[in-house]
# Entry
Amino acid sequence: MSPRDSLARIGVLVRHNALLMLREPGPLLSRMILPLVFITLLRPLYLAAQGPLAGTEQAVVGTLVTFSLLALSISGGAILTERLGRTWDRLRGTPLHPAELLLGKAIPVFAALLAQQLLIVGFGMAVCGLTVPHPFLLFGVLLAWTSTLLALGALIGVLVRSMGELSASFDIGGMLLSSVGGALVPLAVLPAWVSDVAPASPGYWAVRGLHAALDGDTHTATTAVGTLLGAALLCGGLASLRLQGRDGRLVAL
# Structure
């Protein structure tokens, strides 16, 4: 089995899974459009409370983190659909390696999650006047955050048993993690206990890393990236263990 053959198979799986996602574009489109509406409507409140520069940054960062957490449904739904459709058994019967199957499923979802965030940042720059003096630092934080979202969504997708449970997990969990992380409201104005528990939320590190990247604080941004990647590895590892049997093949869930 040559690396070229493996890449070819992964490419086929990526195209197939991307096509499945595009055939049901509703969830993806809602996660793309709603954040832009949210920024437009609520940015004046942030401007009045924090001033033009800080208010614009808070509006964009808070919206990005909140709606990217809600977009976990894209990642979890991609796996849960396979489970509910009883297609895992057929996948196990193919000569494909589990890593190829997981990559074929993950790459289109990763691209969709990253595209959502880039759209929000681009809208903030073009319409709201957001300044991005360190684009590469910001892009690094976005990549780490997208990896965390992908792994966390996959973990939830292998644990829940129905679309109802999936929706509840993402709606409640997404708002909780973003709120506790200081996305919608700065931690400085929230009760003290929120600041104490905030570091346990991936949303906290996303908010912290994005603000640091926009401010050019490399050390803080790097710390946030490392924490997010650690969370991604943990969630991804747990999801992989749940998906694989003792022989290394994908299990039917």
Observations:
- The first helix runs from residue 3 to 23.
